[in-house]
Structure formats: structure tokens, C-alpha cells
Amino acid sequence: MIPASFEYVRAESLDEALALLVEHGDEVKLLAGGHSLLPLMKLRLATPSVLVDIGRIDELKYVRDEGDVVAIGALTTHHDLARNALLSRHVPVLAHVAGQVGDPQVRHRGTIGGSIAHGDAASDLPAVVLALGGTYVVAGPKGRREIPASEFHLGFLETALEPDEALTEIRVGKWGEGGWGFEKLTKRAQDWAIVGVVAVRREVPDGAGAGAVAAGSGIGVALVNMASVPVRAASTETALADGASIADAAALADADCDPAADVNASVEYRRHLARVLVRRALEQASR
Amino acid sequence: MSILGNRVLRREDPKFLTVGGTYVGDLPLEGALHVTFVRSTAAHARIESVDVEGARSAPGVVAVYTDADIDAGPVAPMGFLNQAMKRSFLADGVVRYVGEPVIAIVAESREAGADAAELVVIEYEPLPVVVDPEAAVSSETMIFEGADTNVPFELQFPEDPALFDDCEVVVRQRIVNQRVAPCPLEARAAAAEMVEGRLRFFASTQGAHGVKETLVAQLGLAPEDVHVISPDVGGGFGAKGSVYTEELVVGWCARALGRPVRWSETRSDSMVGLGHGRGQVQNVTIGGTRAGQITAYRLNVLQDSGAYADIGAVLPFMTRQMAPGVYAIPKVECSTRSILTNTVPTVAYRGAGRPEATAALERVVDCFAAEIGLDPAQVRRRNLIQADAFPYTTAVGTKYDSGDYLRAFELALENAGYDDLRAEQARRREAGSSDRSVKQIGIGISSYVEITAPIAGGEFGAVEVRPDGKVIVRTGTSPHGQGHATAWSMIVADAMGVALEDIEVIHGDTDIVPRGGGTGGSRSLQLGGTAVNQAAGEVVDRARELAADLLEADPADIVLDKAGGRFHVAGTPSISRSWRELGAASIERDGVPLQAEADFEYPGATFPFGTHVSVVEVDIETGQVRLLRHISVDDAGKIMNPLLAEGQVHGGIAQGVAQALLEEFRYDAGGNPLTANLADYSFISAVELPSFETAFTETPTPLNTLGVKGIGEAGTIGSTPAVHNAVCDALAHLGVRHVDMPATPERVWEAIQSAGGSPTESDTETATGATGPGPGA
Question: Is residue B281 over pLDDT 90?
Fold first, then answer.
């Protein structure tokens, strides 16, 4: 509970933060809200020698209307997302789930970018962006690139970010018509999900491009804590696209993932929960 | 009009709500060194080698100690425990649980100590690990090689093979009362310094005098050379009633180094350092008539003591005392055995032995009711000890002082709207028969009686009127959240007619308060409050004598006008003497302060009781349980201050609900803790709890002048089985007979799965088959 000593640097701008990443290489970690990183450091499971505090870079705190897409700055807190009128109107599922993360203290400090870049499959927000078919914008010395959410999380606490890159923006398509559902089972309100489910149903205009949801169906279902990364319930999505009932499609919810057992749930229980919660989330999304 | 019985706001709170308390960790100790403990990562192992050279030469490190460096200890267990199970200050060559302190590093800062701890290299030669208490009974692995047994304590009585012979129905159930972590918000902390040759020791404790006694005994010091101070304490729940070896090391280091030394543990350390609570496996048998009369009861307790023979090993004594609970059961047997395992030692935890008794009995009363097809309320009503039976001596020999169990019981059912709840349950079951997404409700009842001030010992109280009119109260109790400053002030205000704001309550300093039993076992008000009341009465008598002298009247003619805080001759209120005048006159005239000290002699234990009703909603598809309502009726004799009493009940219920639904300290088979932080250990939060519906009945005890019993633990004792029964009740129509605590979503789901909709293997016998071998413990 007492971290190893480290050097603390506060970056005043994104450019400065990126320069510090290049300067310190593998030894550096970015500090945003600190709700994932600091506990790891206190337990000495993470021992970066330099901590670059990006928490005061205001240029990365925003929710912007960019036509078909809503762009979210990586340092926007969960609390600000939950209360954001633009987001509530155009991507209500994301605003809702942000309001369900942890507890009020966590939501006031924790950031969407931090949650996504940390890469914990038990986090809710990565699954939302995945279900929505969103993308992540990252910046580094070679410039800026955009990574589809489905390609961002590679393994437990492992992402497509290069050591000298920072996640700067989350981009999700505007809602339009449709419905959504979010279900998470926790022992306590503040806990990470034992299993969580995000289901979105969007009326997709013909020829919709980037930002459209799952394979032609307009329905996206993503699972929290059912694998080492956030995953889509692809079999469920396909079944629905083929006209299956919600109940039948939900029965396939765990077909494409390989969940682990832990102190809260056996593999069998997790799979069962995924099926039940997917059904419920889909029912919500169809209302 | 008396102030007693009123909702007086806590006098403690303005400080806590504004500037905050002053805890051990806040004390400014110039130049203090910090102790860091290196803890065992092995559950059971011989220490092959220890390399502390790296730590010793690390920056900021002043000293590094192993047990061999410490010229004190080992500590013998309490007298009636197995004396071969001694505990060294630091591990003595064998580690017996993960978290056991092995090395003490003394450094200039906490951070330097933590860094140096990383440099210690300990080689362990693994020994067989015993985690499961039932397996430990037959294990050949000895946790203390010299002891030839893993049993530190047992109360074994011969079993009557015919105990259940005349029963029409006999029901058996194995019940696990799981191990929990007490989790006070302030983790353990201690500080020590040498002042003019004396050891001044700051403790986060439930009793400064107990700490002093232990330091005197274990460090080999004269009593006058030890001064213990307990500043504000952020919760204890029984677990800070024990003195830990880490605290002894802190005291030893301050003497050895001649410098102030302090220690504040981290939460990670606290989860495996502070003792754990509960930890019983119970084999329970209940028998009676098909009409619902309980006639025989047998409780066999296996207590998990953890790796050392601490107070947890003794607690089954109180489980046995309270085994028959609130019922008039003619035949009761209870045997107990405590067993060592390679886990954190168990200690007292809110209720300490009594909640386990209530949990066993109340659960099997429900099983019994289910077996004979009667409403569990009806079975309780039929068997409760009647109000005219007190004082009542139970079949195990415990003498209950006073009670009206039926009154509390009926009030709880009425407040709950019991019949309406049953009707709602029937509706949900009907709707759920075709739709599993309909959430089911369960209604659980728990009627309890518990023992407060269970350990013989009186209490000290003193009251002094200073020349400026201020009243100083000294008490041997040791509040750490209970509100004694408020309650003791009320007692003094009532007895003496002084304003609350003129009263100061002092506790937790062994130089100022000569003796004290501290706070635990819900003893404080009935013993400490009564002592203060007694002292206040004596001060009034002395003041009356003094006033009589000053007013040149007979003391018998002097009256105390409590409204004005003045003494005058009866009928002549215009000529009077105030408390301030009398306080000053005592010094001026007699050269002594106007004061009295009292030692309230232990009058015996008291027995609070009550009934809790809990309503839960269960999601049959996921197993998730939500507490909808919790209704309590508690009777702790006269209620001094309903606000304080409700506060105790609220906290108690919260902890009880937590044990029933969420909390369990778990180990893997290798003795590695699986729930050693507050993310994995499901410490309950306000979000999981509804507003509690509390009420009191008041049946005074004859054992003290205030008529009061303890209320500190009753909430936990009453609530846990009510919630537990409610969960089982919600699942009963699915064929589930029993689910062990905590009723986590996974465990509830599994129970539903394995019941498969039809009755589970009911370990029930009818009259003819009831005489088989009893459940073994």
C-alpha cells in the first residue's frame, strides 16, 4: 500500500505528454484519474519510474458534435459523461453506463480514456464502445491514428497502444433511432461487473459507413468480464440478424468467449449469467 | 423532567464532523521511527534462512529485528487454553499463516521501511497446510509440534443417546458460520516513546488498561513504568480488544532504541493482521412434536481458531451459554471444540460467540417449521419463554435476568406487516410458476437473546466538581464510536442538575483513570454508566453535607434543585449554593476537591433480546439477493438515549446483513488469502442497505440502578439469521432447504440449480429412527 518511489512530472499539454513518453520509454506511465494505476502502484504490482500526470490537460476534456459522430476527449470523467447533454441525446447508452461506473468518488476522478487504455475486461465502458462499433484515436511521435474498438484490446491489460502513444479521443456514431440495454451483475454497487452486457439496436441507414454497428444487423452486443478482453457476442448477433427470437439468440451469448473463474463466479455461472443478462439487455433494447 | 431517554445529539460529533478526530497515526511524535513488518507469504513453513543484510543497509533503516533479537516473549495463551501454543513476538522459526509477522524493520520513514522490506530474503521449507477446520480435526499435521494436538480448547459433554427419543420429528443441519474480517475503518496503529524512564504507549484499542497489563507482563515492566493512552479510535468491533504482537514489538523497539517509534498498518496488512471473526462449523439437531413444540436440541460446534490460540478459541464458551436462545427447551446439549488451522487467528467480532448460537438455532427452527409444515412465526410463538418465567435458568444453566420475548416478537411481526408479506410472497410464487423472471421474496424471522457484560468484572467511574463549576467525569470504559461522552454526560446531568456543556468525560488514559475494563461485550453502559451514576450520587451527597454546613442547616433539610443546579434549604430556595460555589468551597475549606470515585461491583450478566424480521427479494435467474426491508425490535432494558441506541442497532444490522449476504474471508487450499483487500472482500456499503425500521421495547434489568442492558452487539446478533432465513425462505418453494452464508449470487444460483425444483435431501427422521449416532463434530 506504499508505492515504490517514482518521479512525478505534470504535463501541461498533449504534445508535452507525448514528448515525455518518448523521453522515458518503457519506464513511464500516464496518470489520468489514477483509479486503476494508483492501486497497482500501491501494491507494487506496477512500478513505473516516471509518472506523467496528464490530469490537467484541458484540451482532452470534451464531448463534441462532429456531424454523424460524437467525439469524446480521453480525459473526460465518467461523471461529466453521465451528465453531458449532447451525449445523453445522441449516445444515451454511453452516458448511462458512465453513470454506473464504480461509485461517485470514482466517477468524479476516473476518465473514459483511462478506463479504456488500462484494458481491464471487467470495465464497462470498453464494452459500450465495442458494441457501438466506435473507434479510438491515438497520438504518438508518428502522428495520429484511428483504431477500431474491436482491434484495440489485445489481452488482459494489453492494448494496441505503442509505449510512446496516448489515447486521445473516443469516437462513436450518433444514435438516431433504436434502443439499448445495459445489464451488469455485481455483488455491491461499487464493484466491477461479475458479468456485464451492453446491447444496442440501431436503425442503420442503407450504405452506412464507419460508425455503423454489428455486421449489417444494426444490433451490437458486447460482454463485460467474459474474456480477457471485452468481446462481442457474435453468435447472438448473427442469430438475431438471421431472425432468431431474443430468447434463442441469448442462449448463444457465451458461445464465443472463454471466461475465467474467480472469487465471485465459476466459469459455468459466468456463462449462465451472460445468457440471462444478454436476454434482458436485448429485451430492454427492443422496447 | 429527566434528560434520560431523550434523543440527545452526540457531543462527540462536532469534532468528528469538522476538524476530525485525532487517531494514533495523527499524533505528532517528534523524530519518530516507523516500524514495517515483513509478513509470511507461506501458510505453514519452516524458516530455512533469513537474509536481512540488504534491508539493514538500505537508506533510512535504523534496525532490523528477527524474533531471535527480541529478549521478550513468547506470549502464553489465556490460562485455560493449551499452554504449549505460545506465540513469539515475531515468527519463531515456523510460520503458521500467511500474514504472520516475521521481521520488523525500523526506519526513518514508512516509505523507507516499505522499500527495505522488499530487500529481505526469507527461504521457507514448506510444511503441510491445514485450512479446513473439519479436515484439521483428523489431520496429522501439528501446527505446534510440541503440543501433540491442534485443539487449544474444548468443552465436551457426554451425549445422551436418548436425547431425541421422544421426538416426533428430528431435523439435522450442518451450518457454516463463515470467517469474516472485522474491517474497522481505522486499521491497527500504535506508537511508543520513553518519557522520563517510563514507557508511554499510544494504542488504538478498546481498553487502555488491558494494553497496559499486557505490556507490563510481556515486556517485564513495573506497572508504574507504563502509561497507556488511547486517543480517538476508529472502530474496533471486538478485534481491537486483543493486544497484538505487533504492538508488543512497537513497545519493545521504543525501549531498545530509546527513540519514539510508531506503526500504522496498511489495509492490505490489516486484512491478514487484525484477527478475524466467527468461523464455526455447526452440526445442529432439533426435535419436537408435529404440533410444533421443541423438546430437544443439540449443538456441536467446531470453532476455527486460526493459527494461534487467541480469544477466538474461547468464544464457543459463549456459544454454549446461549445455545438454547429464547426458547423453553427442556433438553439441550452443546459441546464445542476449537481447532487450529493455518489461517489468521480468530478473535472477538461484534457478538463474539453469541451470534453463532443464534444463527444455528434460528436457522434450524425454520428447518423444523418447514418440516412440520407450520409457519415459522407460529413455531416461535409456541416455544418462546414466557414473561412470567424470569429470572429463567436454561437447560445449559444460563440464568436470564429479565425479558418479555413475546412482546418484542409480536411487535416486530406487527411492524413488518407479517401477514401481508406472506400474501405478497404467495402472489409472487404464483406469478413465478410460469415466469422465472418474477423476483421472489423471502421473509425471515430471528428471535434472539444474548448475553452482555458476559465477563465478570466491575467498572470504575469518578465525578469531580471543579471550582469553576465544570464537572469532570472519568470512566474505565473505552468508547470508540459508541457515544459514551454523551451518555455519561446525560447520566451526570440527570443526577446532579448540571448542564451537559459543563461536563467533560475523560477516558483511555491509564495515568488519569486508575483502572478500567474497557469496552467490549456490550458492557459499558450497564457497568461503566452505572459506576458514573453511583459516583454522581455520592458527589451529590457530599455536596449536600457541604451546603448544609455553609447554610447552617441539617443535611436532611437540604434539597438539590436540579433545574437550577443549586442546593437550598427546603422551602427557602432564595438562599442557595451552586455547584460552582460548592466546588470552590470544598477546596478552600477542606483542601480537597468535591469528588467521588466509585467501583461498581459486577452484578452478573444481563440478557437483551428481541426479534428481527427481514424481507429479501431474490432474482431466481441470477441468484442475486436484495434486502428490501429490515424490521427490528430490540429490548436492552431502559433506553438511555434512543439516538445512540438506534446508532448501535443500525451499525449492527449493517454488519449482520453483510455477513448474511456478502462477507466471507476465503482461503485457497494452500492457505493463500483470496479476499485480502476491500475489492475482493465484499465489505457492505450504504447502497446495499435499505432504511432500517427499528423499534424498542423496554424491559428493565434488576441488576443495575439504571435498568440498562447492552445494545452494542444485539443488532448483529438479531439481524444475521433474519436475513439468512429470509433468503432460504425465498427459495423454499424451489426445493432449497438451506444455503450457507454468505448468500452471494453464485451460491444462491447454485442452490437453486442443485435443488432442481424438488425438495433437497432432507436429513430428517421420524420418531423411530431418531436415535442414530449424533452429528459428529
Answer: yes
Q: How many domains does chain B have?
A: 2
Q: How far is B413 from chain A, CA to nearest CA, in Å?
A: 29
**Does an H or E element contain B154, and which?**
strand B153-155
Q: Please tell me if the domain spanning A7-53 has the same topology as the one spanning A58-173.
A: no
8 Å CB contact of B118 and A43: no
Residues of B in contact with A263 (CB under 8 A): 666, 674-675, 680
A111-122 confidence digits (pLDDT tens): 999 999 999 999
* pLDDT above 50: residue B761: no
To the nearest whole angstrom, how far is the Cα of B115 from the nearest Cα of chain A? 7
ipTM over 0.90: yes
CATH 3.40.640.10 fits A178-286, yes or no: no
Contact B746 A276 (CB under 8 A): no
Contact by Cβ (8 Å): B424, B360? no
Please report whether residue B396 resides in a domain.
Answer: yes
Q: CA of A66, closest CA in chain B: separation in Å?
A: 38
Domain ranges of chain A: 7-53, 58-173, 178-286
Which H or E run contains B598?
strand B594-600
CA dist., res. B573 & res. A61, Å (int): 74
Q: What is the mean pLDDT of residues A233-249?
A: 95
Choose the closest CB to B622 out of A44, A192, A276. A276
According to CATH, the topology of domain A58-173 is 3.30.465
Query: Does residue B312 lie in a domain region?
Result: yes
pLDDT score for A205 = 55
Judge contact between B280 and B134, C-beta under 8 A: no
- Answer whether residue B197 shows pLDDT above 80: yes
Answer whether A190 sits within 8 Å of B675, measured CB to CB.
no
Residue-wise pLDDT tens digits, B351-366: 999 999 999 999 999 9
- CATH number at B473 reads 3.30.365.10
Tell which phi-psi region holds residue B561, choosing left (phi > 0), alpha (psi between -120 and 50) or beta.
beta
